[in-house]
Write a structure and sequence with these properties.
Structural class: little secondary structure
Largest sheet: 2 strands, antiparallel
Distance between the termini: 19 Å
Strand content: 5-15%
Helix content: 10-25%
Radius of gyration: 12 Å
Order of helices and strands: EEHEEH
């Protein structure tokens, strides 16, 4: 089975159960105020932000930066990977 990833921080796990059982440092509710959420897309060589199109080689790198076109406002949220 392929690895699974958190859509908020890019945390990698071998199973969905293991992924969603742990707190996420980049959860929208705040640092460790929610659990990892499954990224439902496939593993890729490059990930694009669904709001602005920014490109990055990993989900963790993509989600580490604020997004200028985030729905909450300019730089008021992080990039989120498109499926």
């Amino acid at each position: 089975m392929a690895n699974v990833y958190c859509k908020y921080c890019g945390y990698k796990s071998s199973t969905i159960a293991a992924l969603t059982s742990q707190s996420c440092t980049k959860h929208p509710n705040g640092n460790n105020k929610g659990r990892h959420v499954l990224y439902e897309g496939s593993e890729k060589l490059q990930y694009n932000c669904k709001y602005c199109g920014h490109k990055s080689p990993t989900i963790s790198t993509l989600t580490s930066q604020p997004c200028t076109k985030h729905p909450n406002g300019n730089n008021k949220g992080r990039h989120e990977p498109a499926l």
